[in-house]
Write a structure and sequence with these properties.
Blueprint: H1 3-35, H2 41-47, E1 50-53, E2 62-67, E3 70-76, H3 79-85, E4 117-121, E5 132-134, E6 150-152, E7 159-161, E8 181-183, E9 188-191
Antiparallel strand pairs: 1-9, 2-3, 3-4, 5-6, 6-7, 8-9
């Protein structure tokens, strides 16, 4: 084999090896660059919809889901709860949800898509405290017979019924906020997205 033939083989080997190393290096450089196009975890948390499985949520129980850095409640209301919602309209500030704190599809007596489920942002509309869930009907510390279950804000005493509607004579000025949401099935709900229904 001549020296010229050996040099040609060497040259081809070096070109092939350099090409392979270059391609691998370009791949390693491209991965973080392309990954940087994806939204950060913080950005996802600020706007991404959240799915929740409500299949195990018993009647009368509350479930918490975090959406946009806020706690959202999902309450499975009982038949008694639904009947009670119709009886307390005279003690509420905005029983017909005139203030725009819910999507149009939740502007009804139950402030929900499905009457048995309340989905609300768990932040008091007074100063942003987190009310506690008080489903106990007739609680003496919350008004006795008038109390049909709901949410009590321990910071300044605001009260909301099980549709998130605010009571008269409390510091909170408006009803709790109902986030956009939709049901994917009977057991799956998405908070933060409504498929354009709003």
């Amino acid at each position: 084999m001549s020296a010229e033939g050996a040099d040609l083989k060497k040259r081809r080997f070096l070109i092939a090896a350099t090409s392979v190393v270059g391609a691998v290096g370009a791949g390693f450089a491209a991965v973080p660059f392309i990954a940087s196009w994806q939204p950060s975890e913080r950005a996802k948390a600020l706007g991404a919809p959240e799915e929740a499985d409500i299949s195990k949520l018993e009647p009368g129980a509350l479930m918490r889901v975090k959406w946009r850095g806020k706690v959202c409640w999902i309450v499975h209301r009982t038949e008694e709860n639904l009947a009670d919602l119709k009886t307390n309209t005279d003690i509420l500030v905005d029983p017909n949800s005139e203030v725009d704190h819910q999507p149009a599809y939740c502007k009804n007596a139950f402030r929900s898509i499905k009457p048995e489920y309340l989905i609300a942002v768990g932040i008091c509309t007074h100063l942003g405290c987190s009310p506690t869930y008080r489903p106990d009907v007739g609680a003496a510390d919350l008004g006795g017979d008038v109390w049909k279950g709901g949410f009590f804000c321990p910071c300044h005493g605001s009260k909301f019924d099980l549709a998130g509607r605010v009571f008269k004579g409390v510091p909170a000025p408006t009803n709790l906020v109902i986030p956009p949401h939709m049901y994917l099935s009977d057991t799956q709900v998405v908070i933060g997205e409504d498929g354009g229904a709003a």
